[in-house]
Amino acid sequence: MKTPTIFNRRTALLAAACLLPGAAAFAQEPQFPSRPVRLISPFPVGSGPDGVARLVAEKLARAWGQPVTVENKPGGNGFIAINAFKHGATDGHDLIHLENVHLTAYPYLFKKLPFDGNKDFELIAPLFKTHFFITTSANSKYRNVADLVADAKANPGRLSYGSWSVGNPAHLGSALFETMTGTEMQHVVYKETSQLYSGVANGELTFALGTSATAGALYRAGKLKFLAIAAPRRLAAYKDVPTVAEAGGPAGFEVSGWTAFAAPRGVSPAVLEKIRRDVAKALSEQDVRDKFAAFGYEPFSATPSEFAQHISAESSRFAEVIKKVGAHLD
Asked: Which of 241, 258, 240 is nearest to 299 (CA)?
């Protein structure tokens, strides 16, 4: 006697689903997003990175049919934002906007970090790259970088440079400048970038590294002078500003920053790929590129493997600089 087949309603539905094209993939891939998405940011409202993030968030919201809100939590070297991210949703509905130093400098700068870059973040994509200018007061006596270096050598420890915290690209880049020129200068920390570049403009500081987004307004107002750009070549928007090497400074001196979106480690590969694809589409649109140009940013696209290689190379450079200058924080 043939054994009867047990064929309940659940089995029947499953069998029917398997006959549909792509049913298996559909069953495994969760709907995303199924509710509002939060983008946590360590950058202050009104900053260049914040402006780009908000524009991309608007495009993602339209594509996803769900609100994508930017939640700014500046301060504390970005740790406030990162802590909120770590306590948020782990399925991709909470994302974070990171600065390059979080991943490439802080592991060597801080003795103990409240996060692990390898365990806490699943990188989605870089957004943009920006190079730094050597800025001085428009009334300063320096005509070029060679003049600045000569003065620093003649007056060890008397010249000063500033930044908005310890361990950011402006600080570490300036420390690298000291090392490459064999000079010694004082580092002064300001609470906000607006105060920092105002300090340069009124002569409180000898110089500071600044981007077009952070120092461009004072430059255009005639209150700051750009001695050089710390990049391999001149920028199209600032063709009259020479590279550091062209201005009599050390060859190969380059300082740049970039930002990236990240999801929690362990988020579904299907969700991660969807976010990565939609972010890439948003970044390719003309109004986003126009926003880049307004801030002096350069598009920065890379495959996951290329991005990983870039992070590895930059991490090695920062590790060397931090070791040379002996910068460490608890």
From this structure: 258
Q: For 317, list phi and psi in degrees, rounded to 5.
A: -65, -45
Asked, colleague to colleague, whether 37-129+257-325 and 133-254 share their fold, the answer is yes
Domain ranges of the chain: 37-129+257-325, 133-254
The answer to whether 261 touches 159, Cβ cutoff 8 Å, is no
For 274, other C-beta atoms within 10 Å of its C-beta total 18
Residue 275 tokens read as: 């976010």
- Residue 271 DSSP label: H
Three-class DSSP category at 28? helix
The gap from C-alpha 273 to its chain's centroid, in whole angstroms, comes to 20
* 37-129+257-325 CATH, one of 3.40.190.10, 3.40.50.10330, 3.40.190.150, 3.40.47.10: 3.40.190.150
Residue with tokens 């993939």: 25
pTM, rounded to two decimals? 0.80
pLDDT value for 135: 98
Residue 89 has pLDDT above 80, yes or no: yes
* Residue found under tokens 């969700």: 271
What architecture (CATH level 2) is domain 133-254? 3-Layer(aba) Sandwich (3.40)
pLDDT at 126 over 90: yes
CA distance readout (Å), 284 to 49, 70, 145, 152: 16, 20, 36, 44
Report which of 261, 137, 146, 283 is spatially closest to residue 210, judged by C-alpha positions.
137
Q: How far apart are CA 137 and CA 118, in angstroms?
A: 41
Please write the tens of the pLDDT for every residue from 16-32. Answer: 444 444 444 444 555 89
Residue 52 contacts residue 128 (beta carbons within 8 Å) = yes
